[in-house]
Design a protein that fits this description.
Elements lengths: L6 H6 L18 H22 L7 H9 L5 H4 L4 H4 L3 H19 L4 H11 L6 H27 L6 H14 L2 H9 L8 H5 L1
């Protein structure tokens, strides 16, 4: 496109990629709205971490940025169901390579001076202590968002998500971070309330 760039137009297409493809949904959820949910939860988890968590303090807005972009490569790869994505080490390694290539393809749709910055958001470094902790908080936010989707579907009377909710709940407890436990205890129960109950 000569001096025009397609990066942000490509990101806009996240709205066409639906999650939970193997499940009967009462309401479909796309990766664009899911990314917003993960970003606001990751930001909150970082604030809680900085107050009650152990280890280094993190910039909540930096963590939020990583969360916003955490699923962007699915524009190219599609949303691979979790049971398949994490089935074994061979699939995990192969999918990681596909994600890296997708991140490079997407960042290549930007001007040269922006590419490195966005490649870091699309394919973050997890080798440093900060990178590992950031990744862990974004992953926790992603799991919480999935759990809340299950809560929502259950509130609609959809039993399809009952076992998924139980399994995701177990994985969230297994994360073992106090900031994650705090969020689950203090914020998640309101998702099952009516508007009047939330507003009180």
């Amino acid at each position: 496109m000569s001096d025009q760039y397609g990066f942000f137009a490509m990101l806009d297409r996240m709205q066409y990629i639906n999650r939970w493809g193997l499940m009967r949904n009462s309401r479909t959820e796309n990766i664009k709205e899911h990314s917003f949910d993960v970003a606001i939860i990751a930001h909150a988890l970082t604030l809680i971490h900085n107050d009650i968590g152990e280890g280094m303090k993190l910039d909540p807005y930096k963590v939020q940025s990583y969360a916003i972009y955490h699923d962007c490569t699915e524009i190219i790869t599609g949303d691979l169901p979790t049971p398949i994505k994490y089935k074994n080490d061979i699939i995990k390694k192969a999918y990681k390579e596909v994600e890296q290539e997708a991140a490079e393809t997407l960042s290549g749709l930007l001007p040269d001076f922006m590419q490195d910055e966005y490649l870091e958001l699309l394919a973050p470094d997890t080798d440093s202590d900060e990178g590992r902790l950031t990744h862990k908080l974004v992953k926790a936010a992603d799991r919480i968002s999935a759990y809340l989707k299950c809560v929502s579907e259950e509130n609609f009377g959809n039993k399809e998500f009952v076992s998924a909710k139980e399994e995701i709940g177990r994985t969230i407890k297994a994360i073992g971070l106090p900031e994650v436990d705090y969020f689950m205890e203090k914020f998640v129960p309101a998702y099952g309330m009516t508007l009047d109950e939330i507003s009180k």
